[in-house]
Queue: 3 jobs
Job 1
Amino acid sequence: MVDSPVTAVERTDVVVVGARCAGSAAAATFAKAGRAVVVLDAATLPSDTLSTHLLWPAGLAELQHLDALAAVEALGAPRLTTAYAQAAGHGVDSGYPSVDGIDYAMCVRRTGLDAVLARTAVNAGADVRPRSRVTSVVWDGNRCAGVRYLDAEGRTREIRAALVVGADGRRSTIAREVGADQPFLTVPSGRDCYFAYWRDRADAPRHIAAQWRVGADLGTAFPCDDGLVLSLVQPPAVSEAGRGPGAAQRRYTEALARIPDLTYRLRGCEQVGRIRSATGISSYFRRSAGPGWALPGDAGHFKDPVTAQGIRDALHYGRTLAESVGDVLDDPRALDAAVAEWERRRVVECREIFYWTNRLARGETLRPLEIELYRSAADDPALAQITAGIFSRTHRPADLYTPSRALGLAVRASVHQWAHLPAVLADVAREIRDSTLEWRTTRTTLRGDAATATTSPSPHVTLTTAGPGEHHV
């Protein structure tokens, strides 16, 4: 794209592209630390975005870190104090392990959540500008030095900053402009995602976040604000040819019919609005740090929505990015080291939940070891708590599959599913293969420093000389 003549050039400490979860968290944290921050978002704010928006306790703890939790709670979504999961006839109830004193989940629609987050950034001192679409990055040699954007009136403007934060989602303009849009690790999902809102009935159990697995299908019911319940289904993915006009409604309805307990949960509820869909999904890691730039949120790392990790990670790594570099913005060498360390830490912290998510996203019929896990957790509250804790990041998947527990699951699966012993043994062999592959990936692609060595920036917008219109923000 060829930019129009620049009508104004500004300077600030940080420019954040994207005003939603990762961007607002970063902006609020920078601003609270006394840094000048400009936030640009192409959308009109507040506005909706494609998201299933469940917040586990760890996500709510991030809102608490930002002093935004009370305002989010005021939106009216109920506290979800019970997690319920059912598969193969085994139902598992559990509470949530506490994170910073929070032991409940919430499902908050994005229009309200994002409005609170943007307001939090503004109240902290950030300059948030909606309807401002970034068109290119400005370079000073090999260093990202700012951005150009079209403002709400269609004028081309330029902002110079010590750091450009690309919090602009999976189709990130900043990732593309710095040459980081191609992931260094990507795993296609085996599931498509369809969801809708329903007007919940008065006697519904609005304190329960529920999930059902039947065959290869997965479905959920999460009560949310305004008396609604969000119901999501994730059937096995189909080819592009199966996603034509009317496919979302058809596939959603068909999946509901295959999950009778979810259909029963929605009995007496009225669907509100259209079916929304996310198809052709892939989980990935992109290079997320370089000279003068960083990519928190989905711009740098994305996981399939099956484990509902996106909002928590966007908030957490937006906030921790600002905490990591706020004191060194004026020292380019120290800034580059700090963003590289922040990226390394995210890779290390997220790789296990990445593997866990990809396993659940395969879109396959329940495997023998999975069935045995549900059976065991139904009778073992401690095991159920560990499972709930994995989703809220208080436990690691490794805490669930310790050698002794994995052996016990295999033995009990062999006893309970003796008639299908070959399938049990094949599942054990597959588990060993998967664990070996994940170990190799951890030692190589996701070892923590591989990300910064995998790709290099390819700037294609050159530095322009500051004109007389330059001023400080």
Job 2
Amino acid sequence: MQQPTLNADPAELAKFSELAHRWWDPDSEFRPLHQINPLRLDWINGIAPLAGQKVLDIGCGGGILSDAMARQGAEVLGIDLSTKALRVAQLHALEAGTPNLQFREVSAEAIAAEQAASFDIVTCMEMLEHVPDPASVVQACADLVKPGGWVFFSTINRNAKAFLLAIVGAEYVLNMLPRGTHEYAKLIRPSELAFYARAAGLALQQTRGLEHNPLTRRYWLSADTSVNYMFATRKPAA
């Protein structure tokens, strides 16, 4: 039987593996993730309280969000395909003594085949724009969450404003992110992500934009989804 093609871009994995040792440095290339993490965490926790829930964090990288959700009382499994990033995540969890937190090197599609309808909450943040087939990941998220459970996504819109702010501005002018972090063609419009979610059987419940002032370095949530945005979706109860 032919093995399924892995839904991952080797160049993307290599890109983040090279930076793996800097994941937990708040002044590194991952500084924006550290800065927006409290906003993401509070938004998720406000919609689907994390305490006592079984959570899967897809594309967890060095585990910044995974760690924060575990500290809210959730039982968290973070998955990624970057070996180096996962080693950093595991080491940090050990050093910090974070409870109920595990990591595993596996794809969303592979774990969906193993553990369908096993998680109360699934998060997939800043990951869809880095894979060849985002719709496949969205479907895996839908398969993994229990009926009545929540799936949260965050990604970047594809338009001229997003190109100027998220790529030219963030990567080439302000050097907030390494150059080449994002490819314009891989960015995803909200209408496209909404279509993927509906096709996977997920109902869109809430959208939020994430805005940034480069002068004050402040981030905040808003209704503006023109650049960075997040979706809260829910799988209908059985």
Job 3
Amino acid sequence: MTLGCQMNMSDSERVASVLDAAGCEKVETEEEANFIGILACSVRQKAIDKVYNKIAKWNKWKDKKNLVTFISGCMLPSDKERFLKLFDIVFTMPELPQLPRMLGEYGIANPLSLIAEPQSPVDEIKLFWKVKPKYDSKFEAFVPIQNGCNKYCTYCAVPYTRGREISRPSDEILQEVRELAEKGYKTITLLGQNVNSYGLDKNGHEINFAQLLEKVGQMGEEIDNEFWVYFTSPHPRDMTTDIFHIIAKYECLGKQIHFPLQSGDEKVLIKMNRNHSVSKYRETMHALREILPQATVFTDIIVGFTDETDEQLENTRKVMEEFKYNMAYIAMYSPRPGAASYRWKDTVSLEDKKKRYAILSEELAKHTLTYNRAMIGKTVKVLVREHDRKEGYLSGHTDGKLVIRFQSDNEALIGQIIELKVSAAAKFSLEGELVTVPAEA
């Protein structure tokens, strides 16, 4: 069971690979398993609540059968301490290569139980990155490029769950991206807690994020298969205009930018310890719009942060009105143990947080609907991802990650990049009609 962000999803693919190599066989249901676990997310309380519900159920099963439980993922030290009393095996993601040895200690024989112990946390994460993932999808993949965070935003627990920033060797990243692209993967997402600070921890002994994107772009020109490369999540403090110029230069670099705002009020940003101003963010946004006018822009926003006033919320709404985002992931603030703001009184009521959430959601919808309606009549490339909820339809996303569906029952289209003519628009989705179908479908 995997909870949390895309990084946890990517981590789960490496866990699956290690378990396969250790001789474990995947079963269809929890009830059939003799070894079962969770990749947790201490960043959100709801995710931790799910962990406690699951382990309570699994521990009851131990009265009736042999069962070994494990937990990993993003864990605060306080959560990890409690989990040690509830789960049989508790390990951090960098300790994943040691999992076979841990299994051996519980009597689960496997060929990898004698793997050598790493000597330091850096060695641990390097060994982890060398684990070849067992990708969940045949056409979409996540590639981690760095781990940890040095920013210490006051609302965030990630520096305490993932540790300090460590960049993965660029040659490993580029090799993994090339292998995926040559195998026919259609989207590849570069992952990190702060992707655009990539390489800064290496003191000039590694390329930076813009240079990494340049090498990926050059790779795209060498490979015949069409694919799109995205990245998440960047920090405004490290976002430079050369990144936009490189994305504009290469067709394989997806024309969608995730650019977290968090708040449109200067005082709230200071209290969040974001280390950037609204004016600096605006300056970067103007450069983005000028250099990449075709790009869609997604953002993250927190409402109801400690002591946020109605006037400060209005400042955020005005920034949303100014930048007209294509998507905003709006979250109601909740204190997390370990984060600095946990020590502060949560002064905004849940009722007010819900009201503010509704205000910003309405503001977002106004602009997404206008943008989507302007797409009607245009022909766009689309990666078909799955069956749509509407019967007889398939759905996917554009190069800019706008969701679009179309009428078809041809399952061979799933995992292919096709062309659709946009015929209708809603607040958060499009509808289209088939224009071209690749020969392989």
